Amino acid sequence: MRLLSVLLVASSLILVACGGGSSTPTPTPAPAADAPSAQEVIAATLDVAMHDIYFGDKNDNIANPPVWTVTARSEVTLNLDNLGGLEHSWVVVKEDAELPMPFLAEDHKDLVLWSSTNVQAGQKSTETFTAPEAGKYQVICTIAGHYPVMQGTLVVQ
Ligand SMILES: [Cu+2]
């Protein structure tokens, strides 16, 4: 008997809830005039130090490649700072590419997704590119002999 009354109370509550919901339909909010477009891109800035011959702070790019993280399809501003005495580049390799050794820039253009200019010794270069789809991409310096000791990872989220 007690169970029945609990059920009756519960079902009447459900009825009230349903009745209230159907009599007051949820209003559809009008779209705001300044709503961001679906095409809006997120800007990101990567600061990359180049040395002879490694990226970042330590000459251990093979064991411990520096990781740069950006958002998929965002506009990336890349600030390259060549602190070395040789020229260097920052080149994103296609996701599924297997890199040959030695890597020769002229012979292996088909493996490249995006390439910076070659930054001369002691120079800086600011460049922009659109981040690819989400994934993990190898980044290498394509100056002859610099890969594999000069490399990093671009993580796109
Ligand atoms: Cu290099």
Describe the structure.
- The protein is α+β, with helices and mostly antiparallel strands and 157 residues long.
- The protein has a single domain, classed as Immunoglobulin-like (Sandwich), CATH 2.60.40.
- It is 14% helix and 31% strand.
- It is built from 1 helix and 9 strands.
- The protein has a 5-stranded mixed β-sheet with strand order 3-9-8-5-6, with no helix packed on it. Strands 2-1-4-7 form a 4-stranded mixed β-sheet, with no helix packed on it.
- A hairpin with a 2-residue loop joins strand 1 and strand 2.
- The structure holds copper (II) ion.
Low-confidence segments, given as residue ranges, are: 3-23
Strand portion: 25-35%
Q: Which structural category do the helix and sheet elements fall into?
A: alpha+beta
Q: What's the alpha carbon Rg, rounded to whole Å? A: 27 Å
Give the names of the bound compounds.
copper (II) ion
